[in-house]
Amino acid sequence: MFYREAGDFKTSYEQDSQTFPIKFDRYRYYAVLVAAFAVVPFVINDYWVNAVFLPFLIYSIAAIGLNILVGYCGQVSLGTGGFMAVGAYASYKLMTAFPEVSIFFHIILAGGVTSIVCVLFGLPSLRIKGFYLAVATLAAQFFLVWLFNRVGWFYNYSASGQITAPERSVFGVAITGAANPPWSAYLFCLVFTVAAAIIARNLTRGMAGRKWMAIRDMDIAAEIIGVNPLKAKLTAFAVSGFFVGISGALFFAVYLGAVEVGEAFGINKSFLVLFMVIIGGLGSIFGSFAGAAFLVLLPVLLKNTLVGGLGWPTDLAAHLEFIIVGALIIIFLIAEPHGLAQLWRVAKEKLRLWPFPH
Amino acid sequence: MPDQLIFGMEVVLNGLMAGVLYALVALGFVLIYKASGIFNYAQGVMALFAAMTLVGMMEGRVPFSHLINAIFGTEIHHFGWHLPGLAAVLLTMVVMVALAWVVNQLIFRHLVNQEPIILFMATIGLAYFLEGFGDMMWGSDIKKLDVGLPQGINLMIDETTFNIFGYGFFIDNLDLVATGVAALLVIALVIFAQYSKQGRAMRAVADDHQAALSVGISLNFIWVMVWSLAGFVALVAGIMWGTKSGVQFSLSLIALKALPVLMLGGFTSIPGAIVGGLIIGVGEKLFEFTVGPLVGGATENWFAYVLALIFLVFRPQGLFGEKIIERV
């Protein structure tokens, strides 16, 4: 009834090409933004920020980045953890080398550095495809983690081999370190997440995104109709690397505060983000959010019900989580290869015809 | 002879032995890939699962004992019997065949005609599932596996080389056994694929699913058979690796090492898996020996992947793989 294109007349090209052409969608989007910026910061406490909101926002950025590469451009990457580590270590080096510059720019620059590294490891994608490429990106994962583990320059020769985020603030409010209020870290990450989503959404709607999708659907055909595969693939790697780098930097600086590279950015992180993309929906920005929310909430939920409610040992709950996640991946690939985003799309289609479907 | 050269030779020999073990895991990948076009990421976890089941059987552990104890508040852990190694191996094989059947019925039957990359991701899901399932079934502690294989330094080689070079090489007996087993396995597999009726059917399925169906080959049967074979190879690999370093989670990471092995050798070639394994085994040991000390060591973690990456750029189909021809 309320979800209709009908009656929503567009009178200019800007209106015609806006992100959300349906009025209801647009208002929903504004409502979510208002709630996220103006309501949530006032009601959250430490537990909610650290257990739910921060990981959700940060993984969303990573999932958007990986979705651009896997979902839009069709280049499967298993090196996400390694690239997040690049972002984390780049931000660490920048934060310690230029303490007078705002952390805001450090994080963006860290994204840029990751982007370059990602393109370097993306170069073989011009020659190899499919799971050959997936395996090749494992090289990035293992090499980068080893590099950050072994070369002292990256962790400033600290005795433990860990990197610890120094205390930094934006507009006088502490963002990193131990003393920050919960809402500051939340808002800081939210700004990046919203910006990433808007940029990604508009990139994928535009020329770049169409080229990526052409490459994904059939690269030879795309080449014949004039898409330059070199440019398309490498831009996908660059954009993806940028987002993944930012999420890695936030993950280290804002969320964890101190990081041991093998533990925080191991191969499991790569799979976690890939699962978010698969469960959420390949080739959908909304899907990245949905997948991230799902896989962040699932362990929290399991832990609270099984360990807190039923009194199971923690390791058993962790095993069950593995089983559930693995089974879900398979179920989604069989039943709904386009993920949660497709369920959402179907719901919207139903809504358009409701209450008179015929 | 200079010392460095002798050490180098020992490193190469040990690398060859390690390579054989990589090749063992890689074989399982090749088998499934050839017959069904599925790139089975779960192979390593299957090896881990097989080894866990074997240990569990031998020690008479109660499956899901932790779960049962947590739910019902009981304290059961062991049946109180010990199975001999051979019986446990046979029982484990039954479990692996059952697993193959379940995997085929529940997962891959529903994914026929999907893109290879979708199948690949499904096997990642399977790997996660099995990992959690195995841990839940048998517990996640590091288990000791001993089915009676010889272990420790081989004295004969030690003495012979000492007499020749004045320095005894250290070769583990277990590695020698593994080499023998791997060689036997490859010969058996090749004979099976080339000369038996089922082997021919398997190759026919690999060549063209529809054509195979139309001459009356049961796709289902062949797939279950192939997954069982892969389960068998996984079991052998699990026994070898489990005896060497204990049955624990890191076992499944060895499977990841088999990936660059495959990329070097080519996904479709059994000899390729062997040669690739040997190249990676020797390469990473030599690299660690020569360059490792200069850059801080532990280069074994990534050397194989980077080597494969560089190699693939120049020869995307691997050493022995069939040339990839793409048509629009």
UniProtKB/TrEMBL annotation, chain A:
Main location: membrane
GO molecular function, one term: branched-chain amino acid transmembrane transporter activity
Domain of life: Bacteria
Pfam family, one: BPD_transp_2
InterPro entries the record matches: ABC_transp_permease, LivM-like
Bilayer disposition of the protein: Multi-pass membrane protein
Keywords attached to this entry: Cell membrane, Membrane, Transmembrane, Transmembrane helix
Signal peptide: none
GO cellular component term, pick one: plasma membrane
Transmembrane segments: 27-44, 50-69, 76-95, 101-123, 130-148, 183-200, 236-259, 271-296, 316-335
Protein location: Cell membrane
Protein name from the UniProt record: Amino acid/amide ABC transporter membrane protein 2, HAAT family
TrEMBL record, chain B:
UniProt keywords, alphabetically: Amino-acid transport, Cell membrane, Membrane, Transmembrane, Transmembrane helix, Transport
Molecular function, one GO term: transmembrane transporter activity
Transmembrane segments: 12-32, 38-58, 79-104, 116-134, 176-195, 215-241, 261-282
Subcellular location: Cell membrane
Gene Ontology process terms (BP): amino acid transport
Membrane disposition: Multi-pass membrane protein
Family annotation (InterPro entries): ABC_transp_permease, BCAA_transport_permease
Pfam families linked to this entry: BPD_transp_2 (PF02653)
Main location: membrane
UniProt keyword Transport, yes or no: yes
GO cellular component, one term: plasma membrane
Family that this chain belongs to: Belongs to the binding-protein-dependent transport system permease family. LivHM subfamily.
Record protein name field: Amino acid/amide ABC transporter membrane protein 1, HAAT family
Organism whose genome encodes this protein: Roseovarius mucosus DSM 17069
